[in-house]
Amino acid sequence: MLDNKETKIIKIFIYFICIILAALSIVPFWIMFVNATRSTTQIQQHAVSFIPSTHLLKNYAIFTGKSFNALTGFKNSVIISTCATLLGTYFSTLTAYAVVVYDWKLRKPFFSFVMAVMMIPAQVTMIGFYQMVYRIGMTNHLIMLIVPALANPSMVFFMRQYMIPSLPIEIVQAARIDGAKEFYTFNKIALPIMKPAIATQAIFSFVSSWNNLFTPLVLLTDAKKYTMPIMVSLLKGDIYRTEFGAVYLGLSLTVLPLIVVYLFLAKYIVAGVALGSVKG
Prior knowledge:
This protein has a domain at about 75-195: MetI-like (MetI-like fold, Orthogonal Bundle).
């Protein structure tokens, strides 16, 4: 048994390690935000600085002075990421619900097919996907960046694995006996139980959709449809000089929504972990 002195030493050591890890996580973001306020010359001379400078407005003018509209790109990214996250998490949870709750002949082959699709990189199917989108005349429509999120095999797999121990089949059967419809049972019983998993996958889905550069770069040719990652990549491709301050500002604007989404959904993840520890 450890005495009180040894316990305090261990706690201090744990807190010290946690503080170091937290600092290592925060410092890169802080440097990025600081560089967004510095000029290109300052960044080239001293790449790392913890003190903000006075060139934020100038960098913003450079960022918004290009051929594209930064606010339009921000709006497009918000629309795509939000819709893809909401629809993807809902229908992936619904698919996992069908695999777990219902007993049908092709349930195991269907899940094996989902697992097989999960192993295929998106880049492999991009040529066929682009040809299909081009033939139906939807190359410059944001909806084509949202619809693929409905079929997310990795999210279906995660939801199924979380649902098997967390959703008692008896509750679903009791709701059916009471006369509840299937969608009512799913929306009112299954979804609340799945909140921690949904919050976790919503963060991953939003981050993945927000940072996606490859698919929008292939499908979008209209500057009014550009997303934030495309605009930031165009800043890096200046012919004469790369304005690093504007690039860091674009990266900062790209990261801020991700931080907001994480802070909003983190409480559900913590609640789920706490609930799991109590059950254990």
